[in-house]
Design goal:
Blueprint (H helix, E strand, L loop, with lengths): L19 H15 L6 E2 L15 E6 L4 E5 L5 E2 L4 H13 L1 H8 L12 H5 L10 H10 L5 H16 L7 H10 L1 H12 L7 H12 L2 E2 L1 H12 L14 H14 L5 H7 L4 E3 L4 E6 L3 E6 L2 E2 L6 H13 L10 H12 L1
Length: about 350
């Protein structure tokens, strides 16, 4: 993963985020730093995704106090795709609890592609985590509801509450994916054969396809991320969407598996929970501080937004967001003393 962080001063995670003017300044700087990156390709395995503008780029920060900072194409809508997995996982944990979800879905990285079938077979039919397709399909199947319509209603309303607005399905994306999701149908049938799905696998895949086709923008992703950053409270609506315990579980899974087989590199460079989607979306959470939403359709080989990663790496360092970064105790004492004199 090329994150282009050379020469960016690392700020300790132990301090608060700077004031709004400084956030705006650093957001502009991160956008300018990422813009020259034109490597990567737009996803085309879902035909409609290939029509995305490769130059589109939006970047947004939402803080837990309700402040929203934007630059670029932050209101350009795209399908949420795999980013939905993190928020559906949170909704499921809220509904059925930590232990049941852990037992059915798991939390370990596969080290393989997001749509791997081999990973299922190698683990005796057990999905390894909810951020790859097998685990996400199993997660969707576990949502409470007497019917598929009931499950969809819970999912749709829940993701809309995370975003603070009513999200709509992109019908064109939904139809395009429905015509080409043969692998996901095969994954669902395989999970059914191992007893991991107890509902009609075709209906489960249909719900999963619809959830991936929900339209969002970079601002939505930042607000959804900030909701997880603030213990499940949406910073714009002040509504408690999920519990703080659910946020903790969700962020832990995102940190270890959110960027597929590149998750280790992401955590090493950025040091934050995050989740990518093949339409070019990227959402990142700094617990207790901010959520970051990015949109840029050019992807690396693992399916992660190139510009989104570069910009987020810069912000993580410049804003002091990396959860693993700290300063020596003596340095903090000198810093405090300097402010007092």
């Amino acid at each position: 993963m090329e994150t282009d962080v050379a020469g960016v001063a690392q700020v300790s995670e132990t301090g608060p985020v700077p004031d709004n003017a400084r956030i705006d300044e650093l957001l502009e700087a991160s956008y300018a730093r990422a813009m020259p990156h034109d490597e990567g390709t737009v996803a085309d395995y879902i035909p409609i995704l290939a029509e995305a503008d490769p130059e589109a780029f939006g970047l947004c920060i939402a803080d837990v106090d309700g402040g929203v900072h934007e630059v670029g194409d932050t209101r350009a809508e795209f399908s949420i795709q795999s980013i939905s997995k993190a928020f559906v996982y949170a909704l499921l944990c809220e509904q059925v609890g930590h232990e049941r979800v852990l037992g059915m879905v798991g939390v370990n990285n596969t080290g393989l592609a997001f749509n791997s079938v081999i990973a299922i077979e190698l683990n005796d039919g057990h999905p390894m985590n909810p951020m790859v397709n097998a685990g996400a399909i199993a997660t969707t199947a576990l949502l409470p509801g007497a019917t598929a319509d009931d499950q969809w209603r819970l999912l749709h309303e829940g993701l809309s509450r995370f975003a603070g607005r009513d999200l709509q399905v992109d019908g064109e994306v939904y139809r395009s994916e429905s015509k080409t999701n043969h692998r996901n149908r095969a994954i669902a049938r395989l999970l059914e054969s191992y007893g991991r799905i107890e509902r009609d696998p075709e209906a489960v895949v249909d719900i999963y396809t619809r959830q991936c086709a929900l339209r969002v923008d970079a601002r939505d992703l930042a607000i959804m991320a900030a909701t997880l950053a603030d213990g499940g409270v949406n910073p714009l609506t002040d509504e408690q969407i999920v519990s703080a315990d659910v946020c903790r579980d969700t962020l832990a899974v995102m940190a270890g598996t959110g960027l597929y087989e590149r998750s280790g590199e992401w955590l090493f460079e950025i040091g934050l929970p995050g989740k990518s989607g093949v339409a070019g979306g990227l959402t990142t959470i700094a617990p207790g501080k901010v959520g970051i939403g990015a949109y840029s359709p050019r992807l690396d080989a693992a399916g992660n937004s190139v510009r989104g990663q570069v910009a987020t790496a810069y912000l993580s360092r410049a804003l002091g967001l990396n959860i693993f970064a700290s300063a020596p105790r003596s340095s903090r004492a000198r810093h405090r003393q300097g402010h007092l004199t």
